[in-house]
Amino acid sequence: MDSARAFPYFWLGGVALIAVVNIAWAINDLRTGSARFSLIRGDRMSRDEEPFEYWLAVGMKLLGGFVVAPFLFWFGLGMLRS
Predict the structure, then answer these.
(1) CA-CA distances (angstroms) from residue 28 to 1, 19, 36, 74, 76?
(2) Which of 13, 16, 53, 59 is deepest in the core (most CB within 10 A)?
(3) What is the pTM of this model?
(4) What digits encode the pLDDT tens for the residues 50-82?
(5) Number of domains in the chain
(6) Are 34 and 46 in contact (CB under 8 A)?
């Protein structure tokens, strides 16, 4: 398999990994009641103290896992057909 045919598999694996991490991270945030916007930077925000920022962080993780990732996966499946 040459590198041009290997890229779609790399793409699909990366998108699947990102989707699983985003969904698991959002579920963890919902259970603990605190969230942060990124892994590298940012303080944790509590659901009770900063509800808007908390729900924004959790919502963006769920949006990425349930809306953006399936579209990118569909795009990757299109690369396999060509």
Answers:
(1) 39, 14, 11, 27, 28
(2) 53
(3) 0.84
(4) 999 999 999 999 999 999 999 999 999 999 887
(5) 1
(6) yes
